[in-house]
Amino acid sequence: MSSYKIASIPGDGIGPEVTNAAVEVVEKLAKTLGTFQINFTHIPWGTEYYKKNGQYVSDNALDELRQFDAAIFGAVGAPDVPDHISLWGLLLAIRGPLQLYANVRPVRTFPGTRCPLNTATKGIDWMLVRENSEGEYAGQGGRSHIGQEWEVATEVAIFTRVAITRIIRFAFETAQSRPKKHLTVVSKSNSMRNGMVLWDEIATSVSKEFPDVAWDKMLVDAMTVRMVWQPESIDTIVGTNLHMDILSDLAAALAGSIGIAPSSNLDPTRKNPSVFEPVHGSAFDITGKGVANPVGAFWSAAEMLTWIGEKDASDKLMSCIENVCAAGKVTRDLGGQCDTKEVVEAVCAEIEKLKN
Hints:
By secondary structure, the protein is α/β, with parallel strands linked by helices. The longest helix is centred in the first third of the chain and has 19 residues, at 15-33. Strands 2-1-3-12-11-4-5-10-8-9 form a ten-stranded mixed beta sheet, sandwiched between helices. Strands 6-7 form a two-stranded antiparallel sheet. 39% of the residues lie in helices and 22% in strands. α1 links the parallel β1 and β2. The model has no long low-confidence stretch (mean pLDDT 95). The two termini are 21 Å apart. It folds into two domains: 1-101 and 268-356, 3-Layer(aba) Sandwich (Isopropylmalate Dehydrogenase); 115-255, Isopropylmalate Dehydrogenase (3-Layer(aba) Sandwich), CATH 3.40.718.
């Protein structure tokens, strides 16, 4: 029987609520199926850790994470700490150094939930791939003459051939694995005439390795319109760090709710552990109220199970989640009346049925 060590990093806001829910559900699944063992270790990084220690993670954070097969992450951010400090202190301090360069965000309309787009008559089923290591979030730039009228701030987007090539190839491989075998490459090369032109050129070059994948290019602003008016023309999308950060949130909202959206921060080389997290953020407005939607964390955990080699368990978990949604046992963001605990209990009850 395979055994896995998983780091649990709940973080801030509703992060602990949904992460604890996901851990409970996955442990229930492992116990019920009896086909694998999974052991979660809590790591207390986040804003409270920052306030006590002056930093968001431990000094040996990367080596600590490398002891695990994967990690599940909740959220980062608090009202009393500037966002750029919390994000760079925790999540970006992990993604870049561990080279988790492929951020994968599946988006689809769940049974029993409503897609707000009347143009999506069959609901939405997209796969979004985000470059996760450089681009607009490279952290290059600076400020000078601070506080003066002539203050200057620069934010330098970094695009390298190696990083663009690997994410474009990963996206083509992802599209190749899906029934439609279609990829849309998003850029903004009409106005960003250096990095984005390189992005387009590499996409054209790599596409020749995948003759069975149909593909097209689209400017990011035009892509937002296409997502609303022609959702059925889309399957797999790849774009830069900033572009896909924005488009993936839009995609989740169009599919029904950002509360169900998962993400995977992957190192496709598998030299480092990958990190799985819901995309909804820390949601200060509902923190501690017990009403957070745990489905995004559940789905992220299912993606983790697939990544570590437990595809059958992942499929069973997703089936249980879908059955619960189809029965209307959902939180308010999906039109239901359930709280977090009730959704967890409903999913655990579905998992219990797997014994039969």
